[in-house]
Amino acid sequence: MGGGEETKTEEEEKQKSTAPFDLNDYIIIKEGDAEILMHTKNEVFYNKTQVNNRDMSIAVLRTFISKRKEEHEARLSKRTKKAMKVSEDHDSGLEAPSEPSSTPNGKSNGESEKTPHGEEPETKTRGELEPPRVLEALSATGLRAIRYAREVEGIGQVVALDNDKASVEACRRNIKFNGSVASAKVESNLTDARVYMLTHPKEFDMVDLDPYGSPSVFLDSAVQSVADGGMLMCTATDMAVLCGGNGEVCYSKYGSYPLRAKYCHEMALRVLLACIESHANRYKRYIVPVLSVQMDFYVRVFVRIYTSAGAMKNTPLKLSYVYQCIGCDSFHLQPLARTVTKNTSVRYLPGFGPAVTQQCNDCGKKYNMGGPIWSAPIHDQEWVGSILTDVKSMKNRYPAFNRISAVLTTISEELPDVPLFLSLHNLSGTLKCTSPSAMLFRSAVINAGYRISGTHVNPLGLKTDAPMDVIWDIMRCWVKSHPVKGQPPEQSGSVILAKEPVLQANFARALASVSKAQAKKVARFLPNPERHWGPKLRAGRTITSKHASLLGPEVVDGILNDNNNNNNNGEGEDEEEGEPETKRKKTEELTSVS
Q1: How many other C-beta atoms are found inside a 10 Å radius of the C-beta of residue 185?
Q2: Which terminal Cβ of the chain has fewer Cβ within 10 Å, N or C?
Q3: What is the C-alpha separation between 83 and 81, in angstroms, rounded?
Q4: Alpha-helical regions (H) of 18-129
Q5: Is 495 in contact with 364 (CB distance < 8 Å)?
Q6: Which residues contact 352 (CB under 8 A, 6 or more apart)?
Q7: DSSP of 483-542, one letter per residue?
Q8: CA angle at residue 555 from 549 to 556, to 5 degrees?
Q9: For residue 134, what is the enclosing H or E element?
Q10: Radius of gyration over alpha carbons of the chain, in Å?
Q11: Among residues 128, 185, 189, which one has the least CA distance to residue 151?
Q12: pLDDT at residue 79, as a whole number
C-alpha cells in the first residue's frame, strides 16, 4: 500500500471515530475534569477502581513538572556562573578551562543534551524549558490522557496509543467530547505501543504503562522511549504471579522468583523495580524510584530514568536474594555484590555469602530462597513530601483524595532503607501466644536501640532494622509475662521458646512508638468505597450485576433483562451460538448425578 493510500485510510478512520453518534447508547462518566462516553455494551475497557491510580499519577506528574523546572533552573544557574567565571579568567589574561568531558554520545551524566525531537536544545540560547511530552501507551477510553491534558498545568502534548480499533475510536470520540483543550493536546493513534516506543527513543518526558495484566512485554521499549531524567510510570495487576502463586511464571516474566510470605506485596514492588532496572541496564541506563505503591489489586511504581555507564555499575549493589524460613517468620537478605574502595579507585566484587546457615538459627527449619529483588529504597521521601503537600493543597481536584492522601501519609512515615517487613500477628501465631499491641512491640524495639515503622502495604506490618534474634528475644520476654499452653517440642514455636532471651526487653512506652499520623488520628487505611471494588471484566465481556459500579444498577438491570429476553426468544439458536452440545450433555449428566 502506498503512502497516499495509508494517509487516506487514517483520515477515514478519524472521520469515522468523530462521526455523529446516538447518545442514548452511552453513559456519561465524569472523573475529575474529564467526561467520557461509556458504551453500554462494554466495548472498551474502563475500570472505575483505577481512579486511585489516575489521581496518584496526576499528583506525581504535577510534582515532576515542578521538580523538572527547578532542576532546569539550577542547571541554567550553574551554566551562567561557569560562563561568568570563564569570562573573568579571559579578561584577566588566563586561559579558559576546557569543557568537562562528556559521554560518547555527547550527553552529560543523567542529562539529555538533545530535545525530544533530536535537535540541540534551545535552552542553551534562550534558557527556555519545553513543556513535557507524555505518552500513554495503552489508552483504551483515553480517560487518563484527557485528565492529564485538562488537569495538569504546564503539560505539553499527550500521545495516547492503542492497538484496538474500537478503543481508538472511543478515545477520539472522548477527546472531541472534552472540548478544545483536550483536542489541542491529546493525540490518539492506532498502533502497537511496543513498536511506537522503539521508533521514538528518548522522546517522551513521561511514559505511562497501565496494562491489563503484566507490563513485562512493554518494559524493554518503554525504558528506551523515556528522555534522560524523564519518568516511567508502570502498573502491574498480575498479583497472583508476583506474590508467589506461580513462581515459575513470575521468573519467566520478571526474572525473579517470588516467595509466599506476609510481605509478598512489597516483594512484588521490588521484583517489578528489579525487572525495570534490568531492562534499563541493557541500554546503559538506570532507574531512581521516587514512589512505589501497592493499592487495591495492583502495584504501581514511579521511576526516573538516566543514562550513565558509570552509575549503571552500582546496580548489583541494589539487588539482593531473600532467604525465608519455612518454620517461622525469620528472613534474611543476601546482597548480590559489594564494593572495595582503595584510595580513589572502587572495585566491584561478588557479595559475601551465604547470609544464613543451612538451617534457621531460630527454629531449626530450612530456608526457601527467592529473588533477586530491589533492596535499595523504593521511595524518595523528599518527593513523597512534595506530592503529599500538593495533594492537600488541591484537595478538591482529586476525586480519590481520601485514599491517596492516606497512602501517601503512611508512605511518608516508612523507614526508607529497610526492605520487607514483619507481621506482629504472624510472630504471635508462630509462638501460639496472644499478640502484644503494636505500641508495646514498637516500644520494645525502640528501647532496644533500633528503629521501627509501619508500612503502607499492610496495616499489621512493621518495618525494623532490628535483627531477627532481637525480635525473637522481645517475643520470648513477652511470653514470659503472658504464658502459652505446652506445644509439641518439634514445632517451631517450641524450639524458639526453649531458648532463653539474651536481650531483656523493655516494654515501657517510648515516645516514638506512635507515629505522627496516628497521634493526630489521621486515617491511613480506608475501606473500599463500595461492593465489588476491584478488577473489572475485560472489554467485550457481558456485564453482570457484579459490575453495577461501572454503569450504575439501573443500566445493568436493563442489560440483564435484555439478555434474558433474547435468550428466551432465541432458544433454537443457543445450540449454534452458545455452548457446544457435547459440553452441555456433560454438564447435564454431572447435574443429574449430584
Answers
A1: 21
A2: C
A3: 5
A4: 51-91
A5: yes
A6: 338
A7: ------TTSHHHHHHTSPPSS----SPPGGGS-HHHHTT---SPPPSSTT-SPPPPTTSP
A8: 65
A9: strand 134-136
A10: 28
A11: 185
A12: 85
Q: Cell triple for residue 274?
A: 528489579
**Res 222: pLDDT:** 97
The angle formed by the CA atoms of residues 355, 357 and 362, to the nearest 5 degrees, is 105
Instruction: Please state the pTM of the whole predicted model.
Output: 0.82
CA distance 449 to 471: 12
173 within 8 A of 198, measured Cβ to Cβ: no
CB contact at 8 A, 371 and 320? yes
Question: What are the backbone angles phi and psi of residue 307, rounded to the nearest 5°?
Answer: -115, 120
pLDDT of residue 39: 75
Q: Which residues have CB under 8 Å from 293's CB, separation 6+?
A: 56, 269, 299, 300, 301, 407, 411, 456
pLDDT of residue 566: 55
- Looking only at the bridges linking them, the beta strands covering 461-464 and 422-423 are antiparallel
Pairwise CA distance, residues 274 & 46, whole Å: 29
Query: What letter would DSSP give residue 257?
Result: B
Residues in the chain: 594
H/E element holding 151? helix 143-151
- What pLDDT shows up at residue 86? 79
Tell me the residue type at 82.
K
The dihedral of CA 373, 270, 272, 237: what is its sign?
A: positive
Say which residue the cell 495487576 belongs to. Answer: 237
> What's the confidence (pLDDT) of residue 110?
40
Angle of CA points 521, 527, 529, to nearest 5°: 120
AA identity, residue 57: S
CB 18 within 8 Å of CB 168: no
At 589 the pLDDT is 44
How do 337-342 and 345-350 pair as beta strands?
A: antiparallel
Task: Enter the C-alpha cell of residue 380.
Answer: 524518595
Three-class DSSP category at 135: strand
* Cβ–Cβ under 8 Å, residues 142 and 170: yes
pLDDT digits (tens, 9 = 90+) for 109-148: 444 444 333 333 333 335 688 999 999 999 888 999 999 9
Q: Judge whether 119 and 46 are in contact, CB under 8 Å.
A: no
In terms of Cα–Cα distance, which of 410, 512, 426 is closest to 468?
426
Query: Which cell goes with 304?
Result: 526516573
Sign of the Cα torsion 481, 484, 489, 494 reads: negative
Which residues of the chain have a pLDDT value below 70? Answer: 1-22, 41-45, 89-127, 532-594
* Closest of 525, 526, 549 to residue 537, by C-alpha: 549
Q: What nine digits make up the cell of 317?
A: 549493589
DSSP category for residue 538: P
Q: Are strands 158-162 and 134-136 parallel, antiparallel or unpaired?
A: parallel
Burial class of 114 by CB neighbour count within 10 A (0 to 12, 13 to 18, 19+): middle
- Distance CA(247)–CA(294), nearest Å, equals 19
Strands 26-31 and 34-39, sheet pairing:
antiparallel
C-alpha 513/C-alpha 519 separation (Å) is 10
